[in-house]
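Following up on my earlier thread - several people asked me to post the actual chain instead of describing it. Fair enough. Here it is, all 220 residues.
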Amino acid sequence: MKIVIVGGGTVGLYLAKTLLEHDHEPSIVEPNKAVCARLANTLDIPIIAGDGTTIEDLQSAGAAGADVLIAVAGRDEVNLIACQLARFEFHIRRTIAKANNPKNAAVMRNLGVDIAVSSIDAITRLMEREVDMSAVKQLVSLNQGEASICEILLPDDFRYSGKKLMDIRLPEESIVISVERGGKLLIPRGNTLIFSGDKLLILAQDDALHAVKEKLKLTD
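Reply from S.P.:
Thanks for posting it. Predicted structure:
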């Protein structure tokens, strides 16, 4: 995934390193030129000395082709505007913002930010989960990110191909809603056979998504 990070401080640096370790393509927008110089000496990624609240600088950071924008600047208004530009100007499918003031998190969500969290630890955990879910397409986020409906296309080498759904034993915090096969939609039961090439819709708590991916052997 291509991911634009607004803010090159400690969190931005950590996120960029995490993304690189997962073979993603981050870029950073940071207004402080001295910070940009340090980032450039540490990371082999695009570093834009600019303002994350301007279309021009986000464009320079690759926002037009990005999958996710994460705003972790020190000012909440910067993070909010960056996420709004990402959504409405660049049509980026996922925006995540750090709310430096916890009271602003709900306001950010109401104004179009997909996920707003106040804890640095929460952002890093969230992003680690996000980058690990590249084989899973999230369709709907429920209850402010506590659960999701996701689409999973089973690979050609799916290890459980031909097995009954009950024998795969997915985590209890997840359920297969439907199976699409050959253009036909199936409502699965425990004895439904699952094959490579099937497209599954799964409802799961977000903290169970990694376990679902592990069980289906969708990890790299």
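The mean pLDDT is 87. That should answer part of your original question.
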